[in-house]
# Entry
Amino acid sequence: MKRIWTFVLLAALAAAAASSCGKDEPTPVTPEKPEEKPDTPVTPDPPQPKVVDYDKYALREVAEKAGLKLGVSFTYGEYQQNPKVVAEILKRDFAAVTFGNEMKHDAIVQQGGAYYFTRAEQMAGWAKACGTELFGHTLGWHSQQQRTYLNNLISRASRNNSASLLKQNWNFEAGTLDGFQAAGFEIFQSLYDVFAGDYAAKAGSDGATLTVDASLEAGKPYTFSFWAKTLAKEGTLSVTSGDGQSAQTKVSGQWYKYSVPFTLESPGDFAFRITASKDVVIDNVRILGEGGGGQEPAAEVIDFEGLTAGPLNSPDISAINGADYVRVTGETAHGGSLSLKMDNSSGYAQNAWSIQVLTKSFAVTPGTTYRLSWYAKASKAADFQIDVRGDGDVKYFESKYNSFPKAGTDWTYQSVEFTVASGTELSFAFYGGVETVTYYLDDIRLAPASAAASAPRRRAAPAFSAVSSLNGELVNDVIGYVYRDWVYTMVGHFDAYGWDVVNETFSDWPAGAFRTPQNTSGEVFVWGQYFKSTKDWVDKAFAYATDALARNGKTAVLYLNDYNLETSADKRKAYCDYVKGNPQVTGVGTQMHLDMATPDLKNLIVASLTDLKNTGRLVRISELDIKCTDLTAQADLYKFIFQQYLEIVPAAQRGGITIWGINDRDSWVKEENMPLLYQGVNYARKPAWNTLYLYLCEVAGLDPYKQ
# Structure
C-alpha cells in the first residue's frame, strides 16, 4: 500500500508543476549566499633586480654624450698580437688613438737620416678603419731620438766659427746686411726659409748682388761657401771671383751648400760676388782657411734633385742597359727628395750588367787619388757592384761579388778610392742586375781623397760645387736644421687633431728647471743643448709646429706635455708659467701615471686640474694609468678622476682623456701593477671599465639597464 500512495503523490506534484508552467510566469531564483571568509592581506610579487647591459652602448658614444673625447694608446706589437680583438675595442670604446712609440724620432728617422713612415702609416690606417682620430706623439723629447744619426752629424760638424774669416754677421743673425756690399738683397726673417737661426739674405729682384771681401794670405788653400735655395719655382745663381771668373747654376727649393776652393797667389783682399734671381735666399756665408772648420775638398756631386720623377733624363748620368727599369723616384732619398731607382725586383736581369747606369766623365788630374762615394739602399740586403772607367771607356777598376758592404734596407754609405795613373777623365758605372731586388742610389760624389791632394792653384767660380751634406757646418746649425726639418716633415705628413709638441721638458730636480744634460740622466739627447737654451728650443718647437700647420692648411691643438704635475707643485708652477707666456701653446697635457700608494692623491689631482684649467688652454689627461693592488679601489679612483675632470674643466677647455694602453699585460709599468681597463688574454673588462661605463651613462642621461 505504501508504494501506491507514493506514486499518487508524485503524480499529483507533477501535474501541479505542469499546470504552473503553462501560465508563462517566471520562476523566482534565490541567489546563493557567498561563503563568508576572514580578511587576508595581498602580497605583491617581489621586484626584479635591474641588470646592467654593458653592451647596450658603445663606451666612446657614452663618453661623447657626457662631453668627453676618450682615447687610448697602443703599439704596433700590441695590435699585431690580436688585431681582431684590438680593432673591436678601438671601434667600440675609443674616439682617439696615440701611438706609444711609432711616431717618435728613432722610429721614423733612420741611421742615415732618411725618414721611414711605413709602420706609422700602417698603424694610422688601422686607426682610421676603426673610426678613431690620430693624436701625434711626439715632436720633441729628450729620449728615443735617433742618436746614431744625430751623433754622426755632430762628429762631422764644426764646434765653432773660429776657422772662418767671416766672423761678423756671416749668418745675418744681427738682423742686418752689415759686412756685405748688397744691391737688391734684403734681410729676410723666417722660421722655415732660412738655413739656420732666424735671418738670411733674400734677393728682392733679378740680378741682385751680394759681395764679400776678405783679407787673405798667399799660398794657403781656402774655401768660399754659402747655402742657397729659392722661394720661387726655380732660380739661378752665379758666383764671380775677384779675378773675374764666374759660373752659373740653377737653384732649387732645397737647401744646398755652394763651395769654391781656391789658393791665393799673392796676399791681399779677395772678393766674391753672388748674383741671384729674385727670391733666392742666401745664408751662412763663410771663407774657411786651411783645414778650417771641417771644410770638404772640391767635389762633383750627382744628387738627382734638379730632375723630375719619371724616366731618367739627366746630363750627369744615363742608363746604358735596361733603361726601362731605371727611373728617378720620390719614393725615398738620402738627401733632398729624389733618388735613382734600378728595379730588378722581378728578376728581369740575367746578368749584373743587364741593368746599368753610367755617370758623365769627370775631369781629373793624373797622379791624384780620388774617392768615389755614394749612398745605396735596396728592398732587401743585397750585393752591389761598380766599374771605374777612364779615357776611351777603359775599365780601371771592376768590382766583384761582395767587393762592397751589401746595400741594406736603410741608406748605406759606400766608397772606392782610385789613383789616376794616366788620362784626364773618370766615369763610373753602377750595376742594377746583381740580384733580384730594387736598388736606390743617391748623393754620388767624386772628390780628391784628401784636402792636401786636392789643394788647387788659384782658381775661382768655374770649380764651384753644390752638396746637401751638413759636414763642416757649425754643430748648432746642423742640429737646428735637422730638428726644424723633422717638425715640418711630421706635421706635413700626418693628419693629427693634436700634437705633443714638446714632451717632458721640465726636470724633477731642481723641480721646474728646463732640462739640460746636467739634470737629465740616461741614454738621452737634449735638443736644447744645441739652441740658445732649452727654453729657446721649446719656443722654436711651438713656432715651427704653428707655422707648419699653416703652410699645410691644417689645424691641430699644440700641447706641452709633462709628468708628475700632480705630485710636484714647483714643477707644475713652472710649467703653467711658461704656458701662460707662450700663446702658441694651445693645449696643456698632464700624463697622470699614478700610483694609488701616493698619499693624499685625490687632493693632489684636484689641485693640478684646477691649475691647468686656469691657464686658459685646452686640458688633456694624456697618458692615464693607475698602479694598484685593489681593483675595486682602482675603479673608484678612475671614476674620481673622470668626475673631477668633467666638473673642474669647462666643456670648451676639454681636450680629452687618453688611457695609456689597452691591456695590463702590455703596459709599460708591467702587468702585475694592473694599471689599465682590460686584462688577460681575453681582454676581459675590469671593474674600472664597468664603473666608468655606469658613471658616464649617468652623466649622459642614458639608461644602462636591460629592459
